Amino acid sequence: MVFLTVGILRLVTHWWQHWLLIATHKCCPLATAQKVLVRELYQGKHVIHFVCEIVTLSTDSIEEIRRYPRKWRRYILPRDIEDSTGTSLELSVPTGGGAFASVDTVRLFRCKQLRYIWRPSCNAFVRLTGLDDGVCSVALHRHKGLNPVEQKRRRMVFGSNEIDIPVKGVLTLLFLEVLNPFYVFQIFSVCLWFSYNYIWYAIVIVAMSVFGITMSVIQTRRNQRALMGTVGTTDWICVCREDGTAERIETRFLVPGDILEIPTTGCQMNCDAVLLSGNAILDESSLTGESVPVTKTPLPCRREVILCTKEHARHMLFTGTKVIQTRYIGSEKVLALVINTGNSTVKGGLIRSILYPPPVDYKFERDSYHFIKLLGLVATIGFLYTLISKIIRGVSATKIAIESLDIITIAVPPALPAAMTVGRMNAQQRLKRKAIYCISPRSINVSGSIDCVCFDKTGTLTEEGLDMWGVVPADSQSLKAALRDVSRLPLGHLLSGMVTCHSITMMEGELKGDPLDLKMFESTGWVLEEANVEDHSKYDLLFPTVVRPPDAIEGAAIGIVRSFPFTSTLQRMSVITRGLTDTHFTVYCKGSPEMIHTLCQADTIPKDFHIKLDIYAQQGYRIIAVAFRPLDKKVSYARLQRLSRESVEQDLTFLGFVILENRLKGDTTTVISSLMRANIRTVMVTGDNILTAISVAKDCGMIPKHQSVITVNVKSTRDTHELYYNLTNSSLPGANQALNSMNHDSIDSLYTADTCTTTHTTLTIHEMECGRSEEYDDATMLPPDLPSNNYRFAMTGRTWGIVRQHFPDLLQRFTTRGVVFARMSPDQKQALVAELQGLGYYVAMCGDGANDCGALKTAHTGISLSEAESSVASPFTSRNPTIACVLDVIREGRAALVTSFGIFKYMAAYSLVQFTSVLILYSIDSNLTDLQYLYIDLFIISVFAFFFGKTNAYAGDLVKQTPQNSLISISPLTSIALHLIISIGFQVFAWYHVQAQPWFVPFNATAHADEFDHGCLENYTIFSISCFQYIILAFVFSKGAPYRSSIITNYGFLTAMVVNTAFTLLLLIYPPAGLASILELIVPPDINFRLTLVACGALHWILAVVVESFIVEVFVLKKLRNKFRGPSPRRKYIQVEQFLRQNPAWPPLTVLAPFGGASGTPSDAPVPSAPTSPTSYAEIGAHAAFDRSSVLLTLLPNPGGVTLNPAGLRVPPAPS
């Protein structure tokens, strides 16, 4: 069949490889299958097929596998086993719970770099996992290492410990690029042109195609090398054997179950491992983007602890990270158990997300394929018409074949891919001049449709580092005035906690650690000293680390005995210290205020804790709470090392707040303002505290001043989850004390968001520093600025996860109106981007860390502000680490999209106009001459297509309306149809007009039956009028503002326009004899007829401008299109927004008793039922500054004894 179809069948099966599998294989049970077809369904509309070959591993099959092609063999057998002879061994496969079993045969296949093995017990293929699949901590600690034989057995199944990146050679990439359907059609067209000596244009098309293919291959190779550069090479490491000996092996030989001995000088991790003993300090910047050393501690050996790599990340050593230093007690070694190897590691997952990104559903590209199919249908009709009509007229077979096939290349322009490529490359070069580098030019067009941008916070919206703002000491009654100069803080527990509770270490004479810890410690002026001994001896000392005051006060030095590192799950860290003159140990703990609040004794918490916390948080400060606890004098050093973290971090005494500020970058506010003016939604996705994130969102304008924020929270029990809503607004809350003084029973009528008000406070941070009381007798309140439905949601990653799992019907509402998503993990960031895309948004993601890689790759447009891993995953990388690049990318994307749209319309219209011209001439067996074709294709079409994309992006503000991205819609189709009708009308008029002239002589096809001689009066007329039409179409389709600059700024395009118009006028009015002879023009003798054609061209120009500027742009695009829209919008987020506006009673808010400020929890009051939402609560935080016209004031006792209720204000009845 391949030979009978001249290779076309094989070409089709190359494009759709699963068709080849279906054609050459038959379905059978998985137990006997040789190949599997894996279908991956993405978002319910994209289906990706993978054809995978099943390999049977056994002693007998190894010789057979060695005969596989090298590129397949290396994915199955480790290199040393592949090169060995006479191998005879069993295989070791995981059976769950950390256990392995020996088997003789294993069936497996690879898909997306992962291995799937046959599990007879469940009659299915399951993903091959290491020791991270529900393994108990005790089982992990029982591992004693593997002997070489067992290691080899497992390596046969797991493969070498290497992250495989398929690297294709230049010839392979070239071959694959050439087999693209567009280039295959170009090859067909070029071969046809060469067959009848239409050489020059064929050479131009070949040159443009070679250029496009070469640039694509170069970029692909560059991306491959960049990706290879992120994967570490093999190294050597010491492993512990089962018999207690140690052996030094290559890291590519590691398998799950090996025990590593981490050297004291550090090493590069080439696998995922869990720490069993000792401590390790790691640099995880390659994964997290944070260049902060992280301390890892051993996994607790408790039966109830089940290993989870995310939950126990503080015990995990991940691939790609670097161990800087290790510490251990006495002669005990720092040991780690290998959990995962190769592509199954965390780094392998990152690489796989780059190699296999989710498909981007972009309407312009999808419609372009549909439009080409439409042109193909037109070409087929023209082909059949030409074939039949010429057979009837008795034209020679050669001429029929050439002209029938030629009509196909006319209707479907082969130069279209090259023209589209040139437009994108111009945009890519303009971005490069702005220090923005694009590794995927296809993404430039997509960025033109962006209407939602997600931003990371730290390092993206704000500066990377932190600055110390001050401290707020506390006593049992209240928080004292803020102390801005930390050096003036007197010696006491608060200062001791600041200088000891940190993860700072001394490396090569320089302090290293978390920026927050460093800033806090450095602000005190104290000095950190580590004992000048070998690392392995430090735990033998009572005080391996000592901190001293700068003035060396006698006996003020403090030794840090033991530390519990910070974890995002626990939101705290703690240390056990002892003053050099003390007789007991002291615990200092610092962390999020909410967490420290739960660990402190209630009588040590100041009454204004929540008020001050809310005010500082709403100002965007990073707030750290500090507490302490003295241990019993009977606690010895040996007993101290055995204390659990839970027993240490309890019954604490609250000491105060340490406040740091994270400043916005200089252009953050300006960029956010520009995006919001352009109606582009902005969303913050961060791992930081939610109150801090909300404050930063307000500071940068992401949350306008008139807008309220509802924080979605979860109240969880063992089996149930309930949502409640904390209603805040755009200014400082700070009214908790005032609200607490109310009669709580009177606040039971505010049960929906419909009564949301916007209030303001007059209390400033400066007044708080001065110790002003929060008793506001002179408070005033302002009425709401906008309708009550004007609110946005904020939530944490934990809430997001629970909503996705338990309340999926509400997820779209929260996503549609969500503005701040805090404490989000990398997976949750990626899921949020996908959810926004599912709602119909075109999403851009801007981040700077490796933890943003998944979201950057999933988004329609990913913009990295870092040159680490995130730049490999992201289509765009900015050398200027500010979000100003987002405006540049969107601006250039809009210009590129409009350019691509214009080029596509121009090439389609040009092909249809020429298709019409040729069919008209075919009716008399004439045609355009080769040089006429060459002049049109090379000097008009190619020149305009080349300069089309040279127009710069519009330099003004972004407009609210995004450019059109659908070719199959009423506006572009109407535009092309109207211009085509006008063009055909003028051609038909000129055709009949020339035939009506007294000097007209018809073309004699019989006299030229055996020649390709097409010169005649009809040819001259159609050629002349069509040349005008190609120039006119280029002019009307080259749009300017508001997406591109005016064409008068594109000097190349303008010059081409003037030169081509002048040359066409010359050919039309008075062509030189030599030129007329070359183009085979038969010039009419009547000058008036030629001037009539010029008048037709001028009238066509005027009509085309009127049609495009007024009929299409105004009537069709802005008025008629709305009439054809259905009753419900196509984009899902608009439907959700309409629902929220039509249902102001959602979310349902219930009673809170008592009020506890922003940190309160809902009471057990009854909840009004809602058909589409779960049991929900809301917490209303009112501001301290009350207006006498507020709904809240109607619930307060009036000092004058007069009840105030503003006219027309609806107060709903309380829920029964």
From TrEMBL:
<keyword id="KW-1133">Transmembrane helix</keyword>
<feature type="domain" description="P5B-type ATPase N-terminal">
    <location>
        <begin position="2"/>
        <end position="118"/>
    </location>
</feature>
<dbReference type="Pfam" id="PF00690">
    <property type="entry name" value="Cation_ATPase_N"/>
</dbReference>
<keyword id="KW-0732">Signal</keyword>
<dbReference type="InterPro" id="IPR008250">
    <property type="entry name" value="ATPase_P-typ_transduc_dom_A_sf"/>
</dbReference>
<keyword id="KW-0479">Metal-binding</keyword>
<feature type="transmembrane region" description="Helical">
    <location>
        <begin position="1091"/>
        <end position="1117"/>
    </location>
</feature>
<feature type="domain" description="Cation-transporting P-type ATPase N-terminal">
    <location>
        <begin position="142"/>
        <end position="193"/>
    </location>
</feature>
<keyword id="KW-1278">Translocase</keyword>
<feature type="transmembrane region" description="Helical">
    <location>
        <begin position="1020"/>
        <end position="1038"/>
    </location>
</feature>
<dbReference type="GO" id="GO:0015662">
    <property type="term" value="F:P-type ion transporter activity"/>
</dbReference>
<keyword id="KW-0597">Phosphoprotein</keyword>
<comment type="similarity">
    <text>Belongs to the cation transport ATPase (P-type) (TC 3.A.3) family. Type V subfamily.</text>
</comment>
<dbReference type="GO" id="GO:0046872">
    <property type="term" value="F:metal ion binding"/>
</dbReference>
<feature type="domain" description="P-type ATPase A">
    <location>
        <begin position="240"/>
        <end position="353"/>
    </location>
</feature>
<dbReference type="InterPro" id="IPR047821">
    <property type="entry name" value="P5B-type_ATPase"/>
</dbReference>
<feature type="signal peptide">
    <location>
        <begin position="1"/>
        <end position="33"/>
    </location>
</feature>
<dbReference type="InterPro" id="IPR059000">
    <property type="entry name" value="ATPase_P-type_domA"/>
</dbReference>
<dbReference type="InterPro" id="IPR004014">
    <property type="entry name" value="ATPase_P-typ_cation-transptr_N"/>
</dbReference>
<dbReference type="InterPro" id="IPR023299">
    <property type="entry name" value="ATPase_P-typ_cyto_dom_N"/>
</dbReference>
<dbReference type="Pfam" id="PF12409">
    <property type="entry name" value="P5-ATPase"/>
</dbReference>
<dbReference type="GO" id="GO:0019829">
    <property type="term" value="F:ATPase-coupled monoatomic cation transmembrane transporter activity"/>
</dbReference>
<protein>
    <recommendedName>
        <fullName>Cation-transporting ATPase</fullName>
        <ecNumber>7.2.2.-</ecNumber>
    </recommendedName>
</protein>
<dbReference type="InterPro" id="IPR023214">
    <property type="entry name" value="HAD_sf"/>
</dbReference>
<dbReference type="GO" id="GO:0016887">
    <property type="term" value="F:ATP hydrolysis activity"/>
</dbReference>
<dbReference type="InterPro" id="IPR018303">
    <property type="entry name" value="ATPase_P-typ_P_site"/>
</dbReference>
<keyword id="KW-0460">Magnesium</keyword>
<dbReference type="GO" id="GO:0006874">
    <property type="term" value="P:intracellular calcium ion homeostasis"/>
</dbReference>
<dbReference type="Pfam" id="PF00122">
    <property type="entry name" value="E1-E2_ATPase"/>
</dbReference>
<feature type="transmembrane region" description="Helical">
    <location>
        <begin position="967"/>
        <end position="992"/>
    </location>
</feature>
<feature type="transmembrane region" description="Helical">
    <location>
        <begin position="198"/>
        <end position="218"/>
    </location>
</feature>
<dbReference type="InterPro" id="IPR036412">
    <property type="entry name" value="HAD-like_sf"/>
</dbReference>
<dbReference type="GO" id="GO:0005524">
    <property type="term" value="F:ATP binding"/>
</dbReference>
<feature type="transmembrane region" description="Helical">
    <location>
        <begin position="934"/>
        <end position="955"/>
    </location>
</feature>
<dbReference type="InterPro" id="IPR044492">
    <property type="entry name" value="P_typ_ATPase_HD_dom"/>
</dbReference>
<keyword id="KW-0067">ATP-binding</keyword>
<dbReference type="InterPro" id="IPR006544">
    <property type="entry name" value="P-type_TPase_V"/>
</dbReference>
<feature type="transmembrane region" description="Helical">
    <location>
        <begin position="903"/>
        <end position="922"/>
    </location>
</feature>
<dbReference type="Pfam" id="PF13246">
    <property type="entry name" value="Cation_ATPase"/>
</dbReference>
<feature type="transmembrane region" description="Helical">
    <location>
        <begin position="400"/>
        <end position="423"/>
    </location>
</feature>
<dbReference type="GO" id="GO:0015203">
    <property type="term" value="F:polyamine transmembrane transporter activity"/>
</dbReference>
<dbReference type="InterPro" id="IPR001757">
    <property type="entry name" value="P_typ_ATPase"/>
</dbReference>
